[in-house]
């Protein structure tokens, strides 16, 4: 009797489960996702966070240059990681795993740019090409993606590396943003770092400042710009997205254009002035 009921139950499950349970559950999940409010970072919050990070960074850098304190070193490491994620809109898990060898092999593309290529850039792009450095790291699905380093971020990282041993970082830890506790082989978590400084900066919506939402912010707000097909392709490649767009053979070298044009766009985002360039192309963005 029990066996027959069990068999009957299994037959009912097999026949009715999809319609009665799976479909209803999927329908509920889809509705919840559809009706969930999607909060993107506010431009005012990004600007406020950037200002907070910059002031904290300058204070810590000055203090460390005078005298080493482990607490200041640890805080500077967190600030620098947050600044790097915020500027590049890079996936947090990718940025936090930048290795020392990656940083030491960084390149300044102005040293390699052919004169003909540099002459084709705007004055703003030429300045960025000379001041920004580019680090290549492993991204999602083993893609090689770039991280751009501003001069002040490079200065911070140089200071972190100088006092790395004094801070107690394990010699086997390969990461730039290494944990300072002895024996740790792991980097800092960018999500924790962003959350910490978002709260400190008294943002209106601190919960919206995550690496994922910062990337969505770029993808959404960039639509107000009149980007060319080439600029969209450069942006997608820089963000580590897959894009099925035909590539012509006559393009500026990828590394040079990535530093110059993405540096210009990302700087406008971080200054909170991206809205001023609605309907314009990257060529029309003037950061002065």
From TrEMBL:
One of its GO terms (molecular function) is DNA binding. Keywords: DNA recombination. SUPFAM superfamilies: DNA breaking-rejoining enzymes (SSF56349). The keyword Endoplasmic reticulum does not apply. It comes from the Eukaryota. One of its GO terms (biological process) is DNA recombination. InterPro entries: DNA_brk_join_enz, Integrase-like_cat_sf. Transmembrane segments: none annotated. Signal peptide: none annotated. The keyword Repeat does not apply. Gene3D superfamilies: Intergrase catalytic core (1.10.443.10). This is Uncharacterized protein. It comes from Dreissena polymorpha.
């Amino acid at each position: 009797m029990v066996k027959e009921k069990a068999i009957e139950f299994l037959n009912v499950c097999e026949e009715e489960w999809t319609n009665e349970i799976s479909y209803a559950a999927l329908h509920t999940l889809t509705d919840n996702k559809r009706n969930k409010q999607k909060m993107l970072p506010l431009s005012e919050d990004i600007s406020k966070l950037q200002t907070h990070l910059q002031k904290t960074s300058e204070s810590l850098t000055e203090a460390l240059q005078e005298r080493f304190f482990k607490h200041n070193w640890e805080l500077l490491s967190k600030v620098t990681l947050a600044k790097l994620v915020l500027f590049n809109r890079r996936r947090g898990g990718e940025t936090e795993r930048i290795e020392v060898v990656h940083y030491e092999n960084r390149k300044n593309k102005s040293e390699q740019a052919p004169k003909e290529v540099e002459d084709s850039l705007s004055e703003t792009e030429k300045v960025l090409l000379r001041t920004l450095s580019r680090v290549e790291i492993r991204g999602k699905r083993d893609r090689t993606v770039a991280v751009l380093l501003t001069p002040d971020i490079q200065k911070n990282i140089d200071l972190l590396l100088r006092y790395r041993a004094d801070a107690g970082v394990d010699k086997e830890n390969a990461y730039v943003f290494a944990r300072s506790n002895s024996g740790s082989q792991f980097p800092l978590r960018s999500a924790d770092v962003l959350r910490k400084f978002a709260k400190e900066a008294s943002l209106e919506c601190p919960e919206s400042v995550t690496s994922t939402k910062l990337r969505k912010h770029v993808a959404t707000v960039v639509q107000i710009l009149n980007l060319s097909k080439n600029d969209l392709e450069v942006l997608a490649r820089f963000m580590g997205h897959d894009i099925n767009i035909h590539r012509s053979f006559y393009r500026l070298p990828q590394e040079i254009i990535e530093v110059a044009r993405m540096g210009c766009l990302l700087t406008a985002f971080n200054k909170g002035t991206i809205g001023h360039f609605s309907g314009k192309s990257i060529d029309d963005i003037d950061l002065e």
